[in-house]
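Entry for the shared binder. Reason: the reviewer on the internal report wants the predicted structure included alongside the sequence.
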Amino acid sequence: MILSESVFDEQRCRLRDHERISKTTGLNRVGGGAFGLVFVVIGALIALLGLGVIPANPERFNVPHSIVTIAGVIFASSGVFFWNMVWQEQRQIRSRQNLAKQHPYSLAFADFPWEPTGITKSPWRKATTGLLIVTSMSVFLIPFNWWAWFSEDGVLLVKFIVVIFNLALVVVIIKLIQVILVALKYGQSRLEYPAFPVVTGRSAALRWFPPAGLSHATKITFVLRCVEEWMESFGSGDNRTTEVIHEQKWAATRMTVGPVACRPDYPLDLLFDLPATVPSSRLADELKITFWELEVKAETEGLDFQERYLVPVYPNATMGAL
């Protein structure tokens, strides 16, 4: 397999359709537990009201009990989802702290709980996440669809808004089907770090193991990039929205030359020259993180393959930390 020379891009640019890396809630176990408990308790009370366990005035209770129960389950599930976010965040912090104690001179382990040998990515994880999103959206829209189409209060504006949300659900379902088809076609892939961590100012050596379902490709593009991620607010008052921003700070691109034959047991060794001035990974920060990733895109017949892998890039001071 022949690779082109690296093409460097030092211009900052916004990236689209990027997965959020930082899952920071900003709360500890006590604060996160209390915040989620509010949603769970209120949701449980609403669900019990819908189930008839808590009595209600039938003259004022003109909403179907099943709709009220679903609304309560949605509210309580939000609290459980938040609990899971806090638990995942605390688990990562504990793992990072334990590794930092084992490797006290390593900036890499103090920053993120890395697996020094590499990272394995499975498309089925995206499929599972997509299925949870579709299920949550579907259940969430049940009360609103009842309001729009079956209640007496479903005015034209309500119907219009619900139609927009239903169309968004259709788009998400189509994307989920595509993710499942990709998972069925390719399977898991892996990126290994021959030298851990990758050091700024030196050559970044990476070893990519293609998925079992990728036997041939017309072209494979490899992009090693540095990305900043932060939350940004827009608007004011009731129109205020928050968006996850990803901005590329530096990138190097290499592509295969000619048709490509791949085997999952025959890895491809990649080499990128990193200037000493590029930023290093800063994944432990709360407000704005910096991370490095290798993006692999394989153009094939039918559905293309695309995956991103975190890469540990740190200053020269981390050498000999293992």
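Summary line for the report: The helical segments are 29-51, 65-102, 107-111, 123-149, 156-186.
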